[in-house]
Amino acid sequence: MGNSFGKLFQITTWGESHGTALGVVIDGCPSNIPLTTTHIQQELDRRKPGQNNLVTPREESDQISILSGVYQDKTLGTPISLFIANKDANPSEYKEIQNKYRPSHADYTYHKKFNTPILSGGGRASARETATRVAAGAVAKQLLRSFNIDVVAWVDSVRHIQASVNTDHVSREHVDATTVRCPDSAVSQQMIDYISTIKKQKDSVGGVIKAVIRGVPVGIGNPVFDKLDADLAKALMSIPAAKAIAIGEGYQSTQMLGSEHNDILYYKDDKVRTKTNHAGGIVGGISNGESIIISVGFKPPSSIGKTQPTIDLDNNETSLTFQGRHDPCVLPRAVPVVEAMIQLVLTDHILRQQCNTTF
Amino acid sequence: MGNSFGKLFQITTWGESHGTALGVVIDGCPSNIPLTTTHIQQELDRRKPGQNNLVTPREESDQISILSGVYQDKTLGTPISLFIANKDANPSEYKEIQNKYRPSHADYTYHKKFNTPILSGGGRASARETATRVAAGAVAKQLLRSFNIDVVAWVDSVRHIQASVNTDHVSREHVDATTVRCPDSAVSQQMIDYISTIKKQKDSVGGVIKAVIRGVPVGIGNPVFDKLDADLAKALMSIPAAKAIAIGEGYQSTQMLGSEHNDILYYKDDKVRTKTNHAGGIVGGISNGESIIISVGFKPPSSIGKTQPTIDLDNNETSLTFQGRHDPCVLPRAVPVVEAMIQLVLTDHILRQQCNTTF
Amino acid sequence: MGNSFGKLFQITTWGESHGTALGVVIDGCPSNIPLTTTHIQQELDRRKPGQNNLVTPREESDQISILSGVYQDKTLGTPISLFIANKDANPSEYKEIQNKYRPSHADYTYHKKFNTPILSGGGRASARETATRVAAGAVAKQLLRSFNIDVVAWVDSVRHIQASVNTDHVSREHVDATTVRCPDSAVSQQMIDYISTIKKQKDSVGGVIKAVIRGVPVGIGNPVFDKLDADLAKALMSIPAAKAIAIGEGYQSTQMLGSEHNDILYYKDDKVRTKTNHAGGIVGGISNGESIIISVGFKPPSSIGKTQPTIDLDNNETSLTFQGRHDPCVLPRAVPVVEAMIQLVLTDHILRQQCNTTF
Amino acid sequence: MGNSFGKLFQITTWGESHGTALGVVIDGCPSNIPLTTTHIQQELDRRKPGQNNLVTPREESDQISILSGVYQDKTLGTPISLFIANKDANPSEYKEIQNKYRPSHADYTYHKKFNTPILSGGGRASARETATRVAAGAVAKQLLRSFNIDVVAWVDSVRHIQASVNTDHVSREHVDATTVRCPDSAVSQQMIDYISTIKKQKDSVGGVIKAVIRGVPVGIGNPVFDKLDADLAKALMSIPAAKAIAIGEGYQSTQMLGSEHNDILYYKDDKVRTKTNHAGGIVGGISNGESIIISVGFKPPSSIGKTQPTIDLDNNETSLTFQGRHDPCVLPRAVPVVEAMIQLVLTDHILRQQCNTTF
Fold first, then answer.
1. How many pairs of residues across C and D have Cβ atoms under 8 Å apart?
2. Is A255 helix (H, G, I), strand (E, B) or coil?
3. What is the distance between the alpha carbons of residues D47 and D195, in angstroms, rounded to a whole number?
4. Where are the alpha helices (DSSP H) in B73-129?
5. Which letter does DSSP use for residue D43 in this model?
6. Within an 8 Å CB–CB cutoff, is residue B263 touching chain C?
7. What pLDDT digit, counting tens, does each position of A308-319 carry?
């Protein structure tokens, strides 16, 4: 339960990290949207492991196959089934942990919830699962193109190293210019160096991913529970390691007075705009036409190479030194995941708004 | 669309701030849960306006009626319909704004989304709507009692004034000891004084509400999208004026190394525990048996008494001095709303877990 | 659970037959649909008890109140809450049955499912619940008007008395011309006489309601599970006492060869039509532009005045003579219920199709 | 949209008849249910084409692969992804119909709904899609085994040839004893001969499938919309070519008086029973512990070998002689599909009832 997302543009993902394959079925994609494997592959390539030495060395080509729902490079309106084989699942390296719970890892909670072997179902808790989100997000992106909606996410901070990014002009080209996916060239090298240091220490580190969504028309989002920001919050908090979500000024808004935070409306060039954008483009749960600004705080990955105390399945104290491949910092690879989740929410809400516009 | 919440314990709320009444229908509440109007009224009384001089003077008794689903003080398993009359709707005071958009208020976005008069549908964007959330939350609370689950929320900060609260021992009695609902007696008076100052300045102020959920068994939450933290994030972000959500250490976790953040498991008194609780009680989207810690950042209310520039419905520049009754700080009244949304999420997920436990 | 219906135009009904009131909340109705209490009341008046001596003498005016979602006679796009008071609930007449299960009535199944007193929750099994369906259907009807879609249902047979009705021309005026709601004037008096005879015998009788839906555009319905006919089947089978559903030729189609049943396509006056309409307007779960023809078989009501053997709550054999007010034949009052359920399904599917038409 | 079914035990199917593959993802299956490919394959083998000369000669082995959700022959509680390759898709034989609508086939309605080439998306309207329903039903069946619930369906009539079957004793062995899947040995040969005759005439024929569900406990089903019979009606009406659904006496009940139709309750051997079972095991939408009896009327298949008039994509009159492989009578292969849909509904409702039983 809980492996589907979206009301009209609904995805269902499947696959364990150590199993045969991963995949996603997308139901509710309208017909005649241009779609090829290339559209999806280029997004997956941004997330895949082994891209560079900042990330896990697991070797996965993450080759996408479209099994249904597309004909002559256009969507049919029928379910789109996407498939990714697991090629480098290496159960041997998990031997150490088949009887021990990794600290702060989902081994323990999955085991207690499902009463299954800890190296099986827990495979859904692996970041590997997010490949299918990226694949589905690539389909959503094709639909958003028709609306000229553009989503760009980037690594905004790695621990204490904070970037400064202009949300009006940042582009994917800027983001992908460095392996750490931070468009602030002044600090991106510091981030890279810092992650390398942490990696050598067999430790891990977190940070913040920020995103801007440009071109969303006024009126997207559904009060009172399915607010656009509420659905974005759920989408982003469901990404592994996410622990904090902020819209617009986020926690900074708690330090402002109403007279400071209120965004004053004005009219220019046939368009209603606001002079500031403290709200981050969403008011009352509905888009106001300004750029939507959102950020996600990621904790450091729980899988580290250092020896840690823990308990085994019989509740005896023991210690564990995890040898498996893992990322010292998930942020660079999480950038396309954040974009995908945002694209899925927007597409769903844009389709939902179609139902209200004809009267 | 979007006025229902929950999968198994599903609520649907209705009613505009300036209309006849408000209400909520709860479908999916099991039978034979003890429930009387008193259970609900005592929660509503914590949220109602006019309680003290920190909050809006609108006079609403918020008297609850149970119209269905309960017989001889027990739930029937049929839909529970709850009703609250609006007694002090005062449309006259809204004359000023019938042709002008209030800055940062949902007037503009509702108007563009629904193409309806700005003083009508926008009534759903009023904080008044949250009364029905509190009423539904009170029903959920009755069910959570059988599981010995306890939710306590409080005002943790008002702008720069920060409380210090022990999440193991904080109780509702501590919270309700002061009108500002901050259990830290050392700072609660500062908060009260500060809000009074802001009120005199015809301005408004935000802050943070924090909550602890004690007694949740291991195994609650559904990967990969309906994670417990993801559903909590949606629930809380859907509250008016919420702009940031954090679980456990939240953004602080981005400043920690993996070796610092990992919560080490140990076994004591027949129970698996963690030595620290940086995760805030949720790992891989599933509760781990530790207390769940969550916080919500609220922006300052957009309705302020100061004169502000804006535009009218014809896009002409104008200015607006809002005379309507409003809260200088929503936090004290938002405390029961935060609790209610948490109770709704937990109840829903606990019912969902019933389906997985029999095999 | 199970008291909501529809995906985009979603209704949630509440209220027990012997309680204070009944109601329905409609979420997902677009804004700016004309709607007044009159639109709803005229449909409710067709269903209400006490209309004539064919039906139950329970005295209920079934006065509708619109509590939210409508302003200045137009829908707001927010939830529409509709309310009907119970005025003539008469628990005294149910004394006889508070410890005995009525044969073939839901007393027993509700009691076992919910473990609640048999005269309480079982109130949801009363035909009284259908008043809220009719109220919601009246709102759907207002939306269908914009699409020139027209739904007409009628009593097609009462036991062995079979009407002959031209589905191209039958209108509500024809249907409402007699109290039995059969537009075939040649047999309607026979039906009336027969029901009166059955009533005198303290017995009850069933029959068939048939409906035609004219004006549905091609392309409505969603393969493969949410087919238009599948959703109609669910909607109609959920009406109390419904036991059989047929689309187009229904069971008659099992007696035909493919070469006889196939509807040949032709083109005339800028429109694709079929020469016959054996399919009843739905092919592959999608409307084909021809009239949709559907019928519902209703069993005789279980509440009869004759003395019947049964068991009591302690499983002892006993007998029961039910004195409560009831209908000897539900069909005349079920006609607006059938129309309402059809209108709800169509409205939902038409809104769903909005999401597929823009590309 | 519309390719998912079920609320807690939710399946999503995908795949076009002429595409690469078909599949289904099952979300919500509890963990630790025994499941192997054999469990699924034996059900698929009953549905697969080419079994004998009564059915389509298309050669499909319909080999099932389990891609996720199962480990060491037990379910994990994670999504179960099932995959079936298409091996004998033969687009060449569809050349004749790439510009012409087959009469009474979904070509036309899919084309108008989705605006896609008629030989692509329409592939979802093929009976081939039902393979995935059978695969998912086999998983549901494994769960129903723990409850000792048993579903048996059979061919009850082929056009005018009517079987006589004892619903208390009929078993799968009786059903599978003949290729026509009719357990009445006296008439099964007549059915076989008749279908062969029709096949030689290049025509097609329909009939009725009936099913009995034994062992369902009292209390399954959710009033008022998600009644057990309503959900069964939807499930069965969504099967290609289904045109009529009946529960218990079905249309026969319209010919009975209340005093004849009412099932009298009695108590024997620690169990409440009814003397008759006219209701077919469901009262007020909830199971009463008696066997559930349901039937589905299937129209004759639209694909026939005879030359028929039709129109082409430019609306010109033409004629069509379909050369593709097809079934003269779908009933023998539809028997496992009917069982699968029933199993899916029951499993879903049994899981839903788990949420109501703990208080």
1. 368
2. helix
3. 17
4. 107-114
5. H
6. no
7. 999 999 999 999
Q: How far apart are CA C56 and CA D79, in angstroms?
A: 51
The Cβ of residue B272 has, within 10 Å, a number of other Cβ atoms equal to 17
Is residue D94's pLDDT more than 80?
no
Tally C-beta pairs within 8 A across A and D.
147
pLDDT by residue, tens only, chain C of 359 residues: 999 999 999 999 999 988 899 999 999 999 999 999 999 999 999 998 878 877 777 778 899 999 999 999 999 999 999 999 988 766 666 677 788 999 999 989 999 999 988 776 568 988 899 999 999 999 999 999 999 999 999 999 999 999 999 999 999 999 999 999 999 999 999 999 999 999 999 999 999 999 999 999 999 999 999 999 999 999 999 999 999 999 999 999 999 999 999 999 999 999 999 999 999 999 999 999 999 999 999 999 999 999 999 999 999 999 998 777 778 999 999 999 999 999 999 999 999 998 875 45
| Residue in B closest to C123 by C-alpha | B78
Question: A261, A270, A320, A338: best mutation site toward chain B, by most B Cβ within 10 Å?
Answer: A261
Contact across the interface for C358 and A30, Cβ inside 8 Å: yes
Neighbours of B269 (CB within 10 A): 5
Say if CB D321 and CB D223 are below 8 A apart: no
Predicted TM-score (pTM) of this structure: 0.97
Residue A151 has pLDDT above 70, yes or no: yes
For A23, the closest of D1, D81, D120 (CB atoms) is: D81
Instruction: List the 137-166 stretch of B: residues with Cβ below 8 A of A.
Output: 157, 159-160
**For residue B56, what pLDDT is reported?**
76
Option in D143, D223, D355 nearest B351 (CB): D355
Q: If residue A213 lies in a helix (H) or strand (E), which one and from where to where?
A: strand A207-214
Distance CA A261, CA B108 (A): 17
Q: What is the rounded average pLDDT of the residues D234-239?
A: 98
User: CA–CA separation, B284 vs A126, rounded Å?
Assistant: 9
Q: Which helix (H) or strand (E) holds D297?
A: strand D292-298
Give backbone dihedrals phi and psi of D155, rounded to 5 degrees, phi first: -80, 115
What average pLDDT does chain A have? Answer: 93
Give the count of beta carbons closer than 10 Å to the beta carbon of residue B50: 15
Domains of chain C in sequence order: 4-358 (3.60.150.10)
Secondary structure of D91-146 in HEC code, one letter for each residue: HHHHHHHCCECCCCCCHHHHHHHHCCCCCCHHHHHCHHHHHHHHHHHHHHHHHHHC
Give all chains having 3 or more CB-to-CB distances under 8 Å with chain B. Answer: A, C, D
Q: Is A351 on the interface with D (CB under 8 A)?
A: no
Q: Which residue in B295, B251, B291 sits closest to B157, CA to CA? A: B295
- Is residue D192 a contact partner of residue D177, using CB atoms and an 8 Å limit? no
Helix (H/G/I), strand (E/B), else coil: C145: helix
Q: What region, left, alpha or beta, does residue A73 occupy, with left being phi > 0 and alpha being psi -120 to 50 degrees?
A: left
Tell which of D17, D20, D68, D112 to mutate to test the A interface (max A CBs under 10 Å). Answer: D68
Nearest to B333 by CA among B154, B123, B86, B190: B154
Q: How far apart are the CA of B337 and the nearest CA of chain C, in angstroms?
A: 20
- Distance (Å) from the C-alpha of residue B72 to the closest C-alpha of chain A? 32
Q: In sequence order, what DSSP letters do the residues of B266-279 get, joined into one string?
A: EEETTEEEES--TT
Distance CA A336, CA A351 (A): 22
Set of chain A residues whose Cβ sits within 8 Å of the Cβ of B259: 203-204, 304, 306, 308
Nearest in space to C1 (alpha carbons), one of A2, B2, B23, D8: D8
Alpha-carbon distance D232 to D341, whole Å? Answer: 8
B287 touches chain A (CB under 8 A): yes
